[in-house]
Amino acid sequence: MISIGIVGLGFMGMTHYRGIKKVRGAKVGAICTRDKQKLQGDWRGLGGNFGEPGGQEDLSGIRTYQEVADLFADPNIDLVDICLPTDQHCEVAIQAMRAGKHVLVEKPIALSLKDADRMVRVSQETGKLLMVAHVLPFFPEFAYLQKVIETEKFGAVKAAHFKRIISSPNWSAGLMNMARSGGPGVDLHIHDTHFILLLFGKPDQVRADGRLVDNKYAEYLSTSYRYTDQPNLCITCASGAISQKGRAFTHGFEVYLEKATVVFEFATLAGEPRLIMPVTVLTLNGKAQVPRLGAADPVVAFTREIQAAVDSVRSGTVNAALSGENGAHALRLCFKEVQSVQSGRTVRV
């Protein structure tokens, strides 16, 4: 049984806690937060952009700590799950690995490339796994698309467009503070840069237009990813926190393959979740097929993500979707896109 210690108990820490309940061969062994009320199980006031809000939680049987050093000293903890604000990821992850713990850290891996590279280097030095919790590949819609592309079920990809647009995230003060979160161009957009890297590999160039805050943080990006060995492959993405609150969140994709088009779009409209377009395969003969993908509850994706982390600890080999190196590459790509907006030019990756 893999014992997991959760560090940080905001909305994402609560979501991971809920997701772990259904992970095979793992349990929450400890929780660390400086909030005494939360350590007593009072999670009222916790909430985010999906799932049920927090309430009173029974934490009997779970060890509680106010200081991360005390959790790291717990010999029964195998995997530390870091759900702290991004500006704390680097130091806490390094401390955990040097204390002999494997690490799963929420995305993005860090706020700077220097910190991301340090984290990867310490993982290599200590032999402890560094995994970055990029959950998108574990959502059934995106997992289906990845399988379709990897197996070439409908032939090769000709073009693909991804989008992820939100309104200002007023449910989280940390996300509104761009110096702590990296802004939408990192905290939000990195979902898609990471997924594009998984599907197509590292692009050779990026060309982005967008809106910057303080000429540093991306509020909105519209990017083209270019592969010199595949000049006819067209990959684009639009992402940012620019929508009015009537559509507080939307994401999806349109992927054009040789023998089919695969489309998907989900949104939150006027406070209500709407499946605008379920994953649909548009075929050569003019039909529209909707594959069965299973549970739609977002927490299920976090269970699958953490299950992959637990399986990685058991096997000693990190699942590619959670790779620390890939997490660092995704962050680097986000910064290259901002550089392109700043310069008004195509940027080499």
Structure description:
- With 349 residues, the protein is α/β, with parallel strands linked by helices.
- The chain has 2 domains: 2-134, NAD(P)-binding Rossmann-like Domain (Rossmann fold), CATH 3.40.50.720; 137-301 and 331-348, Dihydrodipicolinate Reductase, domain 2, CATH 3.30.360.
- It is built from 12 helices and 15 strands.
- The protein has helices at 11-20, 36-39, 68-72, 89-98, 113-126, 140-151, 173-176, 178-181, 184-187, 190-200, 298-315, 324-343, and strands at residues 2-7, 26-32, 63-65, 79-82, 102-106, 130-133, 157-166, 205-213, 217-226, 234-241, 247-257, 260-269, 272-283, 288-289, 347-348.
- A 9-stranded mixed β-sheet has the order 14-13-12-11-7-10-9-8-15.
- A hairpin with a 2-residue loop joins strand 12 and strand 13 (272-283).
- Helix 1 (11-20) packs across helix 11 (298-315) and helix 5 packs antiparallel against helix 12 (324-343).
- The longest helix is centred in the C-terminal third of the chain and has 20 residues, at 324-343.
- The termini are far apart.
